[in-house]
Design a protein that fits this description.
Blueprint lengths: L1 E4 L4 H12 L7 E4 L10 H6 L7 E3 L9 H9 L5 H4 L4 H28 L7 H20 L1 H6 L4 H16 L5 H4 L1 H10 L3 H4 L23
Parallel strand pairs: 1-2
Antiparallel strand pairs: 1-3
Length: 221
């Protein structure tokens, strides 16, 4: 199997955490691929994924598999431990899938916000305000659920949320989101030493990439 991959992608990180949790790392070859959010799509990715996005998993005898949720679900069927990450039925499944949707949605908002800020004149103020409001609301909701995140078995939901918080640290390091969300911070810091989480920290391995400064202050408009 081959995974179209980048160390800067939060959705790739989500898949990589699942790979480590399930002990599948030695079965998957990582192929570096750079997705292009603005401009001409990367033809290498576009050949395998018509959406031009990563992660994309290539499995002999199967069509390319995407997006991260589908890849993680498919991988969970390759290991006896898969059901621990993605329960097959009942309230545990609903809880994990709901958290996954929240984590993925938060990540998507952060990515779109950054893309908007890369536009002319720093982006549209109303669009940016909308992203900021959604991110704040998502973090407030996660703060309220931090206790349940800690007590529930570790699964795809917590993985998706950790990847979103990692994206905050990577692209919004000036936001001080941790100060405004102490319970969520405490939970995320406890997870930082988990081997699968520590092994997949988002890094920029291709030199400086400062990008725009995005305001994500709390307690003010």
């Amino acid at each position: 199997m081959k995974l179209l991959w980048s160390p800067k992608s939060p959705f790739v990180r989500k898949v990589m955490i699942v790979i480590h949790e399930l002990g599948l790392a030695d079965r998957i070859e990582l192929v570096r691929a750079v997705a292009v959010p603005r401009g001409e799509p990367n033809p290498v990715i576009l050949k395998e994924n018509p959406l031009g996005k990563i992660p994309t998993l290539l499995v002999p005898g199967l069509p390319p598999i995407f997006d991260s949720a589908v890849i993680c679900d498919w991988l969970s069927n390759l290991s006896a431990d898969g059901e621990s990450l993605i329960p097959r039925a009942g309230k545990p499944r609903l809880r994990q899938l709901r958290w996954q949707a929240l984590g993925d949605g938060l990540t998507e908002n952060l990515l779109l916000w950054r893309i908007e800020c890369l536009g002319a004149d720093g982006g549209d103020a109303e669009v940016i305000a909308s992203y900021r409001a959604k991110v704040r609301a998502a973090l407030a909701g996660l703060e309220d659920e931090a206790g349940e995140l800690a007590s529930a078995p570790f699964g795809i939901g917590q993985i998706a949320i950790l990847c979103a918080l990692g994206q905050l640290d990577f692209r919004f390091s000036q936001s001080e989101w941790r100060r405004a969300h102490p319970k969520l911070t405490a939970w995320s810091e406890l997870q930082a030493d988990r081997p699968s989480v520590a092994a997949t920290v988002i890094v920029n391995d291709q030199g400086p990439d400062e990008g725009p400064i995005m305001n994500l202050t709390f307690g003010e408009d």
